[in-house]
Design brief:
Layout lengths: L1 H15 L16 H11 L4 H14 L3 H5 L3 H8 L6 H17 L7 H4 L7 H11 L9 H10 L9 H15 L4 H14 L18 H5 L14 E11 L5 E2 L1 E2 L9 E2 L2 E3 L10 H7 L4 E6 L3 E5 L2 E12 L9 E2 L1 H6 L3 H9 L8
Parallel strand pairs: 1-8
Antiparallel strand pairs: 1-5, 2-9, 3-4, 6-8, 7-8
This protein binds iron/sulfur cluster.
Iron/sulfur cluster binds next to helix 9 and helix 12.
Length: about 350
Amino acid sequence: MQNDAENALIQWFKKNHEQLPWRLEPLSKKRSAYVVWISEIMLQQTQVASVKAHFLRWIQKFPNITELAKAKESTILKFWQGLGYYSRAKNILKTAKIIQEKYNEKFPETRQELEVLPGIGSYTAGAILSLAFHQNEAILDGNLIRIFSRFYALDFLPENAEQKKIYWNKAKSWAANKYAFLKNEALMELGRNICKVKNPKCDQCPLRPHCVSFLQNKIESRPPKKIKLYTPWYGVIFIAKSKDQKFLISEGSSFFLKNQKTFPHFSSSPSRAKGIPAEVDKWLQGAEIKTFRYGANIEHSITRYKIFMQTLFLEIKNNAPKTTHWISEKELFDLPSSLCKKVLQALEISPSKN
Ligand code: SF4
């Protein structure tokens, strides 16, 4: 039964696959491990449509490991802007350097070696090994979990070791024998476009004749829902401008934006502050405030935090002290995080004309 389903999947994929900038035609061509790696990392938590333009820009700037490994972290982060989860970009740089130094710029070809590289987990390792080296290696991500749960009628998610093993064994069974590179990619695409979270298009699905949930009319209940738990975080984030046109930033002091430059912020009660909160003084080290105004409130999600922030703009009478973190206006608008962009927008701050 699975053989028939696999064949039907391959035929469907050959006819219906999307044209994507990281794919090669014909599909049987081996791809560059570098291209598979970058595209798969970009695709984690991000829609294909928004990855396309980012990927093309990236490949133009960093066409290979050599160019990537010599880039500055700030440049990498700039080219990652808009994709979120900046630790992914930082790990890409770390891994590029390891591949350059330890492997003479050639990607290792075993799961064991790949999975110890920063940012490469079992899914990405499987994608690199199957799509670039045509090895019979499995992949498992949210799309495949959903397909397997429905196809095999699995009423649980891979939450503990035993459940993970069951899902991985299913994934391995699809990657066994020939054409793992086609079947893996076909499953990813099937999950994205056909066996979707809501309203799966079973009428267009090549797996339908063998899909247990379809035959049982139980698609709605599989996979079982996972309750999403967000941790709410309330606070104030502020931009302080000194007399000599410098802007205060915080670096590495945020617990949800580790080691990143952002604007100073601190937690507060969910109710809206009106005056200048006492915490601001600690940041300004006694500098005298000339004016202040609150901007629009912002909401932002970072990993498991749902952040609700008041935005505040302050002008101070003094020049920027040399000992703390102050940046120029150009650097201010170059800050890569989308949180910073949101704050600038909420406070309606745009680059000065001169
Ligand atoms: S038949 Fe429907 S539920 Fe089953 S794998 Fe296909 S799209 Fe998913």
